[in-house]
Amino acid sequence: MSQAATLPRATVRGSHRHGTGFWLIAFAFLTAMAFSTVPTPLYPLYMARDGFSTFMVTVVFAAYAVGVVISLILAGHVSDWVGRRRVLVPALLLELLAAGLFIVSTDLTVLLIARVITGLGVGMITATATAHLAELHAAHRPGAPAQRFEMVSTAANIGGLGFGPLIAGFLAQWVNAPLRTPYLVFALLLLLAVAAVLIAPETVKRPEVRPAYRPQRVSADHGDPAGYIAAAAAAFVAFAVFGLFTSVAPGFVAGTLNQPSRALAGVIVFVVFGAAAVAQIVTARLSARAKLTAGLLFEVAGLVVTVIGTHAESLVAFVLGGVLAGIGAGVLFKAAIGAVVAMAAPARRGEALAGLFLIGYFGLIIPVLGMGLGVRSFDTATVLTWFAAALTVMLATVALRLVPSNRG
């Protein structure tokens, strides 16, 4: 048979490999992101067992975000020349190490170290897995629209953050050793994720001469500095809302609302992140202006209803506020990414997006630690009101700067 006759069959085989690899990387991405939020419904148990205060819970939570920020700066970009799998496998092994630490000890120092290690792994995974999925999709379906990639990457990233607390909450509610069993289950899943990455095809051809290493550059100088800062503020607010529902909220539900169910805590976080993921998918065809407007309106509405639920000690209102805020945060963050992509020069787009993610993750650190300090002197309802007021001011700034400039 001639070479011309064999080429189509080889191309099809390659296409199938990349198609299978796409779903293997999606599974690994989902597992990694889910593991990062496993402790969320367990925080009240740590508080009861070892006497943690709400402030210490926020410190443990912020340790994760610190790890992500460090990793994004130092290693989030190196897969462009060393290869996707060479970054994903070590990152997943870091998460596996963190799972082992969670299993062997509930000591505060160990928890802090485990959360930092988790953050280091996630910082390496987020951009790398997203790029890997995009490349596998393009290799499997050349010339096809990117909608499948966008939906799957969103579901794996944001959806994974919701699945972690859901699974951990149900396991902690109905199995023995609630502070260890969820980590054992995820340790097994992480091992499967490592195997999935090793099976998936590599999509980066390593250069003959490796570029000189440098940390990821971050700059606001991307055509419209004021617009970039406004987009970064939107990312900051979106991540701050996610931080609220993955740190302080479970303790508030268990304590003030007298709902100690770990399964319920997991469900609440799941619906917040699930709403964000679904909203990102549903609004994919909206214009940039419509996304920004919808995100801002839902975010403000969600914050208001959450505050009302907190003051009224109403679980229904609190959860409804979380769903609305989750929708707003998901759409707003996607709109912020779109705004930055539009304003940044192609050669500096990675740098611009890296800066956006970094500022977003600072939204997981500063407001959450501020709330943790606040609840040491004031009740949760008062502190949450201040939190919502500060974020609303930032949202107003975003609205004034970004919405009028997005006509498309």
From TrEMBL:
**In which domain of life is the source organism classified?**
Bacteria
Membrane-traversing stretches? 21-43, 55-75, 87-106, 112-134, 155-175, 181-204, 225-249, 261-282, 294-312, 318-345, 352-371, 383-403
Extent of the signal sequence: none
Record keywords, A-Z: Cell membrane, Membrane, Transmembrane, Transmembrane helix, Transport
Q: How does it sit in the membrane?
A: Multi-pass membrane protein
Output the Gene Ontology terms for molecular function.
transmembrane transporter activity
Domain spans labelled Major facilitator superfamily (MFS) profile: 20-407
Pfam families attached to this UniProt entry: MFS_1
InterPro entries listed in its UniProt record: MFS, MFS_dom, MFS_trans_sf, MFS_Transporters
PROSITE patterns, per the entry: MFS
Q: Subcellular location, in the record's words?
A: Cell membrane
- In the UniProt record, does the keyword rRNA processing occur? no
GO terms under cellular component: plasma membrane
Q: What is the name of this protein?
A: MFS transporter
Species name: Kineosporia babensis
